[in-house]
Design a protein that fits this description.
By secondary structure, this protein is an alpha/beta fold. It contains 34 helices and 36 strands. Strands 13, 14, 15, 16, 17, 18, 19 and 20 form an eight-stranded antiparallel β-sheet that branches.
Amino acid sequence: MTFPGLSRTGWLGKIGLFLALPAFAFLLSHAEALYRWDFLIYDWNLAAWSRSPPDDIVIVAIDEQSLRQLGRWPWSRRTHAALVRKLSEAGAKAIALDIVFAEPDATDPSADEELAAALAASGRAVLPVLGELNRAGGQLVETLPLPILANAVAGIGHVSVDLDPDSIARSVYLKAGLGSPFWPTLALALLESAKVSIGEPLPGQRAGGAGGPSPLPSSPYVWRRDYRVLIPFAGPPGHFRHFSYSEVLEGKVNPASFRDRYVLVGSTASGMDDALPTPVSGLTRPMSGVEFNANVLDALRQGLTIRPLSDGWTLLLTGLLVLLPLALYAVFPPRWALPLAGLGMLFTVAVSFGLLHGAQLWFPPAAALLAQGLSYPLWSWERLLQAVRSVFEKEQLAQVTLRSIGDAVITTDARGNVQYLNPVAESMLGKPSAALRRRPLGAIFQVADERDGYAPVDLVAECLTQSRLISLPEPSILINPDGREYAIRASAAPLLDQRGRLSGVVIAFGDVTEARRLSQQMVYQATHDALTQLPNLNLLRDRLKQAVARAQRAGCSLALLFIDLDHFKKINDGFGLGVGDTLLQTVALRLLECARKQDTIARVGGDEFICVLEDLQQEDRAVDFATKILNVLQVPFRLESHECFITASIGICLFPKDGGDVDTLLKNADTAMSRAKENGRNNIQFYSRDMHVRILERLTMEQHLRYALERCELELFYQPQMDLRQNRIIGVEALLRWRHPQRGWVPPLEFVPLAEETGLIEVIGEWVLETACRQAKTWQRQGLPSLRMAVNMSPRQFLRPGIVERVSRILRETGLEPHLLDLEITESLLMKDVEVGIATMRALKAIGVRLSIDDFGIGYSSLNYLKQFPIDQLKIDKSFLGEIATSRNDAAITLAMIAMAHSMRLTVIAEGVENETQLAFLRANRCDEIQGYHLSCPVPAHEFVILLQKEPDLTTS
């Protein structure tokens, strides 16, 4: 072969290329070095095989629903026997149970016999065999079904699947076994049990090559495989028709769905079986083993199995495909080399695709494609080198020309993509030219007009749209990809080609950042405090004026807090001005930690600060914020070698209540702060007196409540509960009371919500539970009958982690039997977090505690959730009993709740029974228990004992 226009050295190189490239491709193909690319091409081709799932293959799935319905795995063999009988009676053509029954049922030996009988009666069922390592010695063993089951089934098939090097399952061996490939795969065994033949010999790649069985000697400890076929999957996971195991067992599925169909039974629930990643699985849904076997069954039935091309044919075809573009290069002119290389690669892909879909043969094309891709640069290296040298020279010329320019210069093409930028532009954009070239300049060159509030301006897009010179006002702001800002003067001019068409844009800009920085520094110094860097009074007035305008438009409130440090002069006098300045800086940092981003905190004097709280939905938030400030200032300040303590007096005024303009608000906040100073410092004062009284009362009650428990001001009263059928007292409810030293008895509706809000209810609730249990045990020791003790649980107490451990500890320490403790929980509490609530209730039930739903009927719980709650009793709210004799609606609702509770095997207790009419109604309608003033009002513990002694008809004896 000769090559016109080439020297002797040149055509010798071309001949060497004809020899070297096929040899290189042979080496890659034989070594399977490009297997990942071959797999990628195979998976892409496989997508064209997607087809509708066959009607005669169905899956009975052991899914999450079945596990919830039938309980934890493993299930009784009787359950599986029932399923086999149902499928057989429905006329299933064949049944494959992808379930290993390798060990007898220890809890029910006769269940194995029942399953064997069902399998034998079916005559069309197959079971799996496994090859797995023995845990004791690491030896490979063959795990077969129980002999009684193996003798009853129509066939046994292996379920072993080998993953490809990229951990994807694409193939299956039709025969495998320990020592010799004896067992058919599960899908083939299913076809054999249905007397369906796929022809002889079996399709697939033989273990010893094309000629026959493996030449390796037989060994009883080696898992042998034969007849490897690639699987054309019908579709992604979930493609085949599924039925839930529990629904089939309960008869909810039409038996006609299984008539004359192949049925595969196996697990699809996560965590129960090995899920197989397949080419059609996607990123997050691996395919279950049972659906993998369904795909194998479908492929075998339709004769769609794919066989890998033999090594000899693979090497021959690879060599021909590599030589094809080289031959074309020698025939056609050099300028055609690149298109011919592309056509050769497309032809290779087409050959692989055609063999796969036409002859069901897989030819891995990656080695041929790589060699073809290398053929063009190796054949045309001289022309490519010359072109690269020319481009490099032109680029160097452009860089030398523009390097001396002091301003930044950028050029783009007609679409706004960067073509060139000089070193000054690289520096200002913060990226090298290589990282920015061919990227859209509008995405990396953002200019903002400072005078228009930093509205972004795409200078390139404007120039391309208007096709004229565009200049930006000074100073404009350049924001580079790193977020750094430059003040610049900038202009953009269009570039036109020889025909006058727009071919690009040239942008020139200069840096004026330093001048702008000096200007901004002067503005900042005029509006900020030099010591704390907080806004000063000038900036505060401006922001407060804007905040008032926003509040007027939105119709909402804002608060102004005037904060003055107490006795700050003593800090300066005692420790020096340096320590005082450091203290002021630290105070400023703590104030900023308390505030939101939209709040303004300013220093307006030596030790005076002002906070502006906007969008004030509730006025109480101003109190909470002020209280937070007092709390953070209570923490000692460690300054150099000194430890300082400081407090503050805070005055609060509100807009528009206490003033409608800036000066009035500042004056009134100062007045409120002075009042705080007069009242002893370290406190909060409102300019509005009425609100101050209300907030002060709330703060006072909260403070007193914090000490109520340690001062023994809290007390439990007990109200009896009577069983209407036995007409005797069977329990009591513990009710919390607060005896205030000045106010007397404080109603629970006043202090219980406050305890919930402040978190004190957790400590108080634990005290109530322990005291009630201890009292119940004390009554037992005094000779009283064992009474059930009912205790209300608050939402925060019930949902707090560790509640079950605390209840167990209290029962253990007090000695009270768990079944005598009845925890009452409201509907609304459970609906806050249903899943956590159910889990906690089940844990409490596990230790023997009774559970009741309090105030039933007034919450918003779903009956669907109610049936999931492991409760013992419903307590009807007293609001339904007030007019039960005259209101048909209340009577109907009460009767419905009693009937519903009894249907759910729950007891019913009605609270708030105050007269004989209510009692007679409840007794006549089978209410189980009552509680209320008609029986007794809540009484202290010692009076409850007297109550039992005075009422012999209501005792438990």
